Automatic annotation (TrEMBL):
Residues 150-244 form the MDMPI C-terminal domain. Keywords: Isomerase. GO terms for molecular function: isomerase activity. This is Maleylpyruvate isomerase family mycothiol-dependent enzyme. Residues 10-131 form the Mycothiol-dependent maleylpyruvate isomerase metal-binding domain. Pfam families: MDMPI_C (PF07398), MDMPI_N (PF11716).
Amino acid sequence: MTLDHLATIAREGDRLAAMPADALFAPVPTVPGWTLEHVVRHTGKVHRWVTGVLRAGPGADVTRIAKEDTASLPKGAAALEAYRDSLHALLDVLRATDPDTPTETFVGLRTAAFWTRRTAHEVSVHRIDAADAVHAAGGPDPEPLDAVSAADGIAELTELQYVHRLPGDRLAPGTHGSTVHLHGTDDAAAEWLLTLGPEGVTARPGHEKATVALRGPTPDLYLVLWRRRPLDLLTVFGDRTVAEALLEASRF
């Protein structure tokens, strides 16, 4: 999947860099307090962080690099050009690095492929944030996400984000033992079963009967799970309150 992830980073990153400068102060509808400028500067800083970690190699202090070695992007129109430079620098490092090269991450030692995948989904979600801000300010509809990339993004969400960023104490106790079936209707393989419990969320691929099922095109399902689209965009079967509790807990 590495080459696909690189293509996603380049495509979505170029779309983010091409956002209009005159919309930089447009609010992002789904991220209270953020504007398009916040999205551009945040995503560019994350690119610089990943670039620094990859260059440092195994043993890198990822927290220190994030705090000390990652310069913020400038404000105003200059942020867009600085973002493009950050994007290209990251792509250069990723393309020059063997995907199997050991590297540090925020979840311990992994390989460079971890960062390629993580960046692909980071920039995809934030490109939607940026496009939503432009659209709300009177611009065009956001260009849709690629369905294959979105399916992989859901897999990454279940394998990484839920495991490391959603502790069980954030889930309403009444949901423990409940299950959520995710079904991307445009991809026969895009199905997962999530189990909510006191230790958090566990997931496995496949089709099983669940407390609640969420069905819809894979890009829609991906964006609902990332809280960028309303639950009503999907078809919901079963106990809707369980799905709402999962989304409420997924504030990261």
